[in-house]
Design brief:
This protein is an alpha/beta fold. The chain is built from nine helices and 13 strands. The longest helix is centred in the middle third of the chain and has 18 residues. It has a six-stranded mixed β-sheet, with helices on both faces. Strands 1-2-3-5-4 form a five-stranded mixed β-barrel. A two-stranded antiparallel ribbon has the order 6-7. Helix 2 packs across helix 9.
């Protein structure tokens, strides 16, 4: 019987097949081969008569798989940031976007807590500027949606963008991923945490990965995970990184040198596009920072 792992806790895997969910254990041979099933894996299970637990006998090769958190077969990433509290950190957003690009998923950028734009006067101005800047940088590249989880604004737009896909929420702690999830599928009842008054950053509230169904008829599902902020994107190499920035990739083929890294090379089309404001300075700085990290990692 074929099914989909929707949750894994303490060595048990909950596999959805049709309208039923089966609690399963993995075959011993998987452990011997250092293979572990992940939430999102499509699997073959065997029903054991007179036993409350079924058995996972085969894992179908996934289209992608992630280590932290341990999930598979992601079709779309909803990268969540906040208009304020905590304030957006562009390099973190860009690392998550590179991760999504490398794994060939669709991307939606969600600017959450947009209700803060209408808050206190000083915060209002800064939050409004934050939203304006995020839109200016990212709307030419990806769908951008402003959400307010108190009113539900923007949630239907996200549902439309992820329709028929297995989507994952990703973003720094405290930006409201669990609140977005609760709006997308209220029965998830994801725990939400308070923002630290000292650091103005959030606390992790999701303790395991789980895959929820939003629309059964269309096959729309969404992962809730402990977070991707520790994910190491440096599996990309120097040559590949430029292709994971769509705006840099767009101009990279016209450079004088085929192995151009777009840092200080002569007749570089990317640097020319940067001078002409066709590439965001913020994005280019993220690219340079990640390129340096990759170079340093190769030295050890």
């Amino acid at each position: 019987m074929r099914g989909l792992i929707v949750k894994g806790i303490a060595g048990f895997y909950y596999v959805k097949s049709g309208e039923s969910v089966y609690r399963c254990k993995a075959r011993g041979v998987f452990k011997q081969r250092d293979i572990k099933p992940a939430v999102g894996d499509e699997v073959i299970i065997e029903i054991i008569p007179d036993n409350e637990d079924s058995l996972i006998t085969e894992i179908i090769t996934p289209r992608n798989k992630f280590i932290r958190p341990f999930i598979a077969n992601v079709d779309c990433f909803v990268i969540v940031t906040a208009a304020a509290e905590p304030w957006p950190v562009m390099p973190v957003i860009d690392r998550l976007l590179v991760m999504a690009e490398k794994n060939h998923t669709d991307i939606v950028l969600c600017i959450n807590k947009c209700d803060l734009v209408r808050g206190e006067k000083n915060k209002n101005r800064r939050a409004a500027e934050s939203v304006r800047l995020l839109r200016e940088i990212y709307e030419p590249l990806y769908p951008v949606v402003c959400t307010d989880c108190r009113s539900g604004a923007g949630i239907d737009e996200i549902k439309t963008l992820i329709r028929g896909k297995k989507a994952a929420l990703a973003g720094p702690s405290g930006v409201g991923k669990s609140s977005v999830l609760n709006r997308l599928i209220p029965e998830a009842e994801a725990e939400t945490g308070n923002i630290s008054e000292k650091s103005k950053r959030g606390k992790h509230t999701t303790r395991h990965s789980e895959l929820f169904t939003i629309d059964e008829s269309e096959g729309t599902m969404i992962f809730d995970t402990p977070g991707f902020t520790s994910f190491d994107i440096l599996e990309a190499d120097e040559e590949e990184l430029q292709h994971l920035y769509p705006e840099i990739d767009r101009y990279s083929g016209s450079c004088r040198y085929k192995n151009c890294r777009h840092i200080a090379e002569p007749e570089c089309s990317v640097l020319r596009a940067l001078e002409e404001d066709k590439i965001s300075i913020s994005r280019y700085e993220s690219y340079k920072q990640q390129l340096n990290e990759i170079k340093k990692s190769r030295q050890y």
